Amino acid sequence: MHPAPSVILFTTLSGLGFGLLFFLGLGMPDVTGMVSFVFFAIAYALAVGGLLASTFHLGHPERAIKAFSQWKTSWLSREGCCAVAALVVMGLYAIGTVFLDTQWTIFGIIGAVLSLATVFTTSMIYAQLKTIPRWNMPLTPAMFISFSLAGGALLAGQETMATALLIIAGLVQLGYWSYGDKAFAGSGTTMETATGLGDRGAVRAFEPPHTGSNYLLREFVHVVGRKHSQKLRMIGFGLGFALPVLLLLLPIEGLALKHTVAAIAVLSHMAGISCSRWLFFAEAEHVVGLYYGKR
User: What is the pTM of this model?
Assistant: First the structure.
């Protein structure tokens, strides 16, 4: 699929933001007052910023409010409901920690669950699509959730937990790439099934259905060169997981230096995840490409 910048921003920022809210809701780090305010400000900036970025991809952003009404059948609607509920509940929890120097545990736990549910519902928007075999597998929600938890732990300053979660997320990423590369071939979808002419023998495209481009080709058929893809995978994995883990494992003394290294690890992780997200969309092989002889 065509990797729209707004969607990449949305999935990257909101995942990190709700991941941080998850840990804050569980009291990690255990802070109050101005320090708590800073953590919540970062979490809300990422989560709300990501959600706002998603509206730029809509044909009619002014109708975004209607997305909340279809929660019984739409994962997009469920995502919106979970996101708003998480932000409201965590907002109440933040009031207690920032202004009243107290933790309302029940709000924190509910908010943490809703934050993780938001990430899950986001992942299911893509995982439910049978027309894109690379997304239509359990590793898609596993990847979204592991990325969110790893990034959230990193932003929350939970170094030991972040190291373990980054390693797990990295392994999930490798697994996603490995299985994803075989997903289209394993789906059983071919030129014959795409055209419905399989009973007549092997089918090949004699000429394109159109002389020019159209919406389907622009949005759903994005071909990435194998060498280009492999380079981006190495960059994404190195910046997103390998480098942050190495930085967290360094024996560093001094609070200022420790904070500086942690900030570099966060920025590296964000850059790597952005690269991974670009590949997530760019490598998505929609079955409509078969009709146009692009697969």
Answer: 0.89
